[in-house]
Design brief:
single chain, alpha+beta, Beta Polymerase, domain 2, Poly(a)-polymerase, middle domain, Alpha-Beta Plaits, 5-stranded mixed beta sheet, 4-stranded antiparallel beta sheet, 16 helices, 15 strands, about 20% strand
Length: about 475
């Protein structure tokens, strides 16, 4: 494709991704109103604090349509840390009345004002990373660093990059996504100079990629020693932190492939989110039966945790079950976890079949080598020994009867004992194991996740497949 055609696509996408003057004006008016209300409340309650708006709206790098506003209440370093949460809640209650309590490093508040959601977060007023007392203290430092360097053209390209990773399902550093945070997108554009330069570089990335724009570490070797990640972006305000630490290897390579696909066949569709329709039960059931494998579901209900904690439990639980099954001889095709972000977690396990062989082969030491006597003594005449020990070529072997060769029964045992499960999942009020063919037992919220899981494929395949 000619460069002028590529420029035209970028320009059209940029127009779609630029908030309208009216949307921008409304957002800034609400932000300023919220800051004023918080300042008045802090003065009335006699708190010596600074009220600082942060986030993408202050740098014009936000995407239209969904504007989340962030305001930090900065306390003096001498203020007791244990009082941060209750103090910010007092200020918010005085300023807005109603609020929703949320949790991060400390409790914070989410309020609604004129149709906008605003997070009000407590932090300490620090000058640099050496003074940090809580993880969120970095955010105002990030805002200052970016605001001093961001230009209108760079802001435009940040919006393009955010929309690009959002379109491929990789926007967000939370456990659910394991992708690119907004701050990471901004730093990548600052470092490479433009959206296109980020994409051109990413196409040829070879892990580990090290970006140290503020020259905070002594060498690439030191960076890779400190951070075992495929993409290492040293935080320019805190060298102890990799801004890309949440980015998984899968998302790293998905981005690399998407960059190649875009450069090969540019299109505005790369900047648009895919809409997944809500599937009906019959269609999901047909997909399950078409696979011809065994699909088990574990449903944990009655949980009371923050959304990110539930996602952590879901993903961790899936990984641990995968490992337990594999270590006990059950071949696993795939395992994953999902949540409705309020009270339930669903883990899916796919195996080739429900039953495996009731007999397993266990390998022993070489003939005449250390451990020979112990191996023979352990298995000779044991109740679960089917055959052996015997010699095959130069090594001892024995055939043993498995304790359990039924996937569903094995998983039920884990649910019952809690062995290997994350503690919060084991403490769920109700726990159930069922087959995905029992479609009526699958909660409505999980159908879309299962549908996407069963239909999983990358959105940029056609571009990579075309010659």
């Amino acid at each position: 494709m000619k460069s002028d055609e590529l420029a035209s696509i970028i320009e059209k996408a940029s127009e779609l991704l630029t908030p309208s003057p009216e949307e921008k004006r409304n957002a800034l008016e609400v932000l300023n109103q919220a800051v004023l209300l918080l300042k008045e409340a802090a003065i009335k309650l006699e708190f010596d604090v600074s009220i600082v708006p942060v986030g993408s709206i202050t740098r014009d790098t936000w995407l239209p349509g969904k504007t989340d506003l962030d305001i930090f209440i900065l306390f003096k370093k001498s203020f007791p840390e244990e009082k941060l949460g209750e103090s910010v809640i007092s200020i918010v209650e005085e300023a807005f009345g109603k609020y929703t309590l949320r949790y991060s490093a400390h409790p914070y508040a989410r309020v609604k004002l004129s149709g906008f959601e605003i997070d009000v977060v407590p932090a300490y007023d620090v000058e640099n990373a050496l003074e940090l007392r809580t993880p969120v203290d970095r955010s105002p430092l990030h805002a200052k660093f970016l605001e001093e360097r961001m230009t209108p053209n760079l802001a435009r390209d940040v919006r393009l990059l955010k929309a690009f990773v959002k379109g491929m399902g990789a926007y967000g550093a939370e456990v659910k996504v394991e992708g690119f945070s907004g701050y990471l997108c901004e730093l990548l554009v600052l470092y490479y100079g433009s959206f296109l330069d980020v994409i051109r570089a990413a196409k040829d990335w070879k892990e580990p990629v090290v970006i140290d724009m503020a020259k905070m570490v002594s060498s690439t070797e030191e960076a890779t020693r400190l951070f075992p990640n495929p993409l290492i972006v040293i935080d320019p305000v805190d060298p102890r932190r990799n801004v890309a630490s949440a980015l998984s290897r899968t998302q790293f390579y998905r981005f690399k492939a998407a960059a190649k696909a875009f450069l090969k066949s540019p299109s505005e569709k790369f900047f648009l989110e895919r809409e997944v329709r809500q599937p009906d039960e019959e269609y999901v059931l047909s997909l399950v039966e078409k696979r011809g494998t065994y699909l088990a579901a574990l449903l944990f209900d009655g949980l009371s945790e923050a959304p990110d904690t539930l996602w952590t439990q879901a993903k961790s639980g899936a990984r641990k079950l995968h490992k337990l099954l594999k270590n006990n001889g059950f071949p696993v095709i795939h395992a994953d976890g999902f949540t409705n972000e309020s009270s339930s977690v669903l883990i899916l396990i796919e195996t080739p079949s429900r039953l495996i062989s009731p007999i397993e082969v266990r390998e022993g030491p070489e003939v005449g080598r250390p451990g020979e006597s112990e191996f023979i003594k352990k298995h000779l005449g044991a109740e679960n020994t089917i055959s052996g020990p015997f010699i095959c070529e130069n090594r001892w072997f024995v055939l043993k009867r498995r304790k359990n060769n039924d996937v569903k029964s094995f998983i039920k045992g884990i649910i019952r004992t809690g062995h290997g499960l994350p503690k919060k999942l084991f403490s769920a009020k109700t726990k159930e194991v069922f087959e995905c063919r029992e479609i009526s037992k699958i909660p409505d919220w999980a159908l879309k996740f299962i549908y996407e899981w069963l239909q999983r494929k990358e959105p940029f395949l056609r571009e990579l497949a075309d010659p």
